[in-house]
Amino acid sequence: MNFRRFRLFKLIVIFICMYIVINLLYRSLLDSKTSSSMNENDNIPLILKSTENNVDQISYSLQPFYIRLPNFSDDEAKNWFYNSTYYKLNSKKCPQGLCEEKGILFDDVKEHLSVNVFLVKNGLYINDGCGYNYGTTAVKRTFVSANETTVIYDKAIIYTVPDGWAFQHFLDGIGPKLAHSKSYLQKYPDAKVIILQGMRFDRSVQEIWSMLGVEDSDRIIHYTPNMKVGAHLLINPCLTPGIHPRLWQDTRSMYWSISGISNRKNEVKRKNLIYIQRTSTNARNGARLILNEEPLIKILRDYCLKNSLNYIQYDHSKDTDHIRSRIELFYNAKIIIGVHSGALSNMNFAQSGTTVIEIMPYRQETSILPMTCSMFRPEDLKACAGYILFTQAQLLNHSYWILPNVVNAQGNMNLTIIYTVPDGWAFQHFLDGIGPKLAHSKSYLQEYPDAKVIILQGMRFDRSVQEIWSMLGVEDSERIIHYTPSMKVGARLLINPCLTPGIHPRLWQDARSMYWSISGISNRKNEVKRKNLIYIQRTSTNAVNGARLILNEEPLIKILRDYCLKNSLNYVQYDHSKDTDHIRTRIELFYNAKIIIGVHSGALSNMNFAQSGTTIIEIMPYRQESSVLPITCSMFRPDDIKACAGYILYTQAQLLNQSYWILPNVVNAKGNINLNISRVEKLFDKI
């Protein structure tokens, strides 16, 4: 009996031990799967193909992966990163809170893991965002007749990532999509390659395309937002993660392969220490310069001497060699060091295990943000491109070290242009405040591409305003400084266009021509017959102050629709809160307007994109008790004769040489309008 008890006890112990061993093996296997995407020798994933309604979808799923934390040389660097917005935003993704041990887990299927290529017969591309958020309906869009397109190609491949014409953003935007779609470039050597048109086309990017067999003059199409591209076979690799180790490492192997070094991985001992030098000449925005560079260079040279390395001081503005030479140079790097900049993206050509040291500049007043993210408020935890080089280094399996360093009060600014008009961060007041000043000073933006642009910091920074600045070549993260009253801004050259009239037809019409020009419609003034009647709708959702709503809107809309039907016009009901397109699309919409009608509001400022002669009808609300004033001027006493912004849209229309009609209408106690419909009918009988 005792023997049986002992035997039973022995079996229980064996079972427990086996359970522990199996559980440990299972967890080890799971961890290896999750982190295996960092390994360059991953097995090829299972590729799935499906066909539906003339659309072939080729897809596969990648493994979840970790982004390791940086290496730190001291507690100061460690504390900076642990207090950074990146860590605060992402540390919750660390399994069981073990950030230091495992890193940050990225496992969202759509954003990180699902790779897709769509082959669409008679596909149609209309300015869709090329990324993992690409709409599944848009990606399958087709055309039936040529009238739905502006151009039709036999075959085309879409790579319309933002700024893909620039070296840095070719690498971080187009590169990962090429990783799983480059075979189509060879399979269809006559296929057009669609990229976004930019302010330039970097030579290094042209050379990479050429090495892939894509010559610019023959195959590359520079897409503009007014184009509707059809293709009998449209190949779309956009619906793909922007970051994944497998994609980034496969792309790196592609760069090596087309440069002829794919089979030499172990032949050359890496001997280069490369210091990426940032100077007032090569820095596009003139900031983030190391003022005490000499002692840094001495440290680097001494280290090379001690460790038998080649010291290389790399300045991209002086590099006139073919991109192959640069790929070879960074392929042989053992250590890469430099200030946060696009030139550090050359790490994409370096082998796994390369030490990458990023000197990360930050401002004292926003010490938990990289300097390039200083347009954000620190308490707003949001993704910021200032950490992109850290991410790249980890995806490429490099040894990444961060060296945060505060910048001086000037941020090393060489040049500054002042546009500090009130509320210039808002769409309406960019147009009526900054626009007229840009009309006679925009040339300085191109003449001094490193100049900082100073605007007032606001409660937000309207997306449409950011897009206009971007089309002018001014990227927010690089050049725009959001001024606060406590700042004292110095510059070696301060350019100030402020002492300029706020209103003059020449300034306003020149500014309008500028908007047309940067949208690609400057030479089409007489080509398009204006056919749009645009009703700018004001609702309880899109009205910031919730007033000036038309309570009897239905009969107004019926009058407008009937008028359009009678006069062969397109009726467009515009709600700015639902407009998610790029500002280019809106400029095109209002450029083609024949009539614009709406209640007094900032959205009527879109008339700045309309041609001379456009009919503008402003429904002007006023209170019964102060009937000689627009409602927006009701803070004044009627007997005080003074300027009032309530008339600004009338002024704008006249400056723009438009046909302005005013339709005053009393409001109720809540500031809303019961429109006098008979007066509207009479007005439309006259125009």
From TrEMBL:
In terms of PANTHER family, this protein maps to: GLYCOSYLTRANSFERASE
Which keywords annotate this record? Glycoprotein, Glycosyltransferase, Membrane, Transferase, Transmembrane, Transmembrane helix
All copies of domain Glycosyltransferase 61 catalytic, residue ranges? 167-357, 427-617
Q: What is this protein called?
A: Glycosyltransferase 61 catalytic domain-containing protein
Report the transmembrane regions from the record: 7-26
Q: Which Pfam families match?
A: Glyco_transf_61
Organism whose genome encodes this protein: Adineta steineri
Q: Name one GO molecular function term.
A: glycosyltransferase activity
